[in-house]
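Recall from the previous lesson that a structure prediction takes nothing but the amino acid sequence as input. Here we apply that procedure to CD5 molecule like from Monodon monoceros. The sequence below is the only information supplied.
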Amino acid sequence: LCPVFSLLPDLQPISHFFAESSSRTRLVGGRHRCEGRVEVERDGQWGTVCDDGWGMKDVEVVCRELGCGAATGTPSGTLYKPLAEKDQKVLIQAVNCSGMESKLIHCEQEEDVFDCSHNEDAGAMCEIPETVRLVGGPGRCKGRVEVKHREQWGTVCKAGWNLSAAKVVCRQLGCGRATLTQRCCNKDTQGQGPIWLSKVSCSGQEGSLQDCPSGLWGKNNCTHDEDTWVECEDPFDLRLVGGDTRCSGRLEVLHKGEWGSVCDDGWGEKEEKVVCKQLGCGESIFLSAKARRNFGLGAGRIWLDDVHCSGKEQSLEQCQHRFWGHHNCNHKEDVATDNNNNKPHTIQLLNMRTKSILKIIELTPLY
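The prediction returns the following tokens.
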């Protein structure tokens, strides 16, 4: 590494605190409202944050400001789609929070951004605060819908409830697709506390149940005979096996404790995009059937077939597919993918005197 000297040693970056009235913060493109690319609003204009110096203390402040849970990661903002618009500015850089601030605008930061592009946009991951849960069912993804209000859990009346609302709950809980929504319950599974919500009307696109229009909290004529019951598919894990890195190989999904493959019927670039996004990999190389076999054939169950994604989903479980285990495939049709942004790179170090190669270093992405 070569030493770097400042040409203007007497000049210092202009660091300051935003006036509180001039800025807000949001997370864009994540799986839920507590994850995504960090954007701030200044004087009515939304822009991104440069990730120079960005760290966990900065994310802690973002999570606190948005009413989310604990900070869990500092991902690149480029992982989240849609990407920032070309005419959208990078508004701040060199954010330096102590971790105790209530808002990002209270942290020291530089407003005059001159050397950052959208390839350096900052991201944030926070836990989702527990404001909705499913109770009384087999596992956390099935049960009576309960919401938390004024630090007390209560139920949701079935009046106005539909599958779109169930989709929001399943997504908010990190579960799979909504498969059932019905009126609850027998006496053993009825709620006993307040009935907080009724006439909930969701489009299915909301990030949380609290974002859906509803009647006034606690104002309804419902009884616990009308409590709402929702069932979601259990979330499933993905992995790529048989490749050189974790971002290449035959695709397998975990269901009922057993790994199985995915059939390539209907499989295309949009589905590949979702898999790579879920695994935190870059863009994929779409492989021919012959090339996919280089990763070997599966030997167990074929869990999924006819998978169809729009490309906007954050995980494969949000895409349409046949029921688990229903297919007309064999293992010669197993899906596999390769990732052109995550292959090891090599650097050759040259002896400048003899012009000979001293060493070859393989750089493998850190996961």
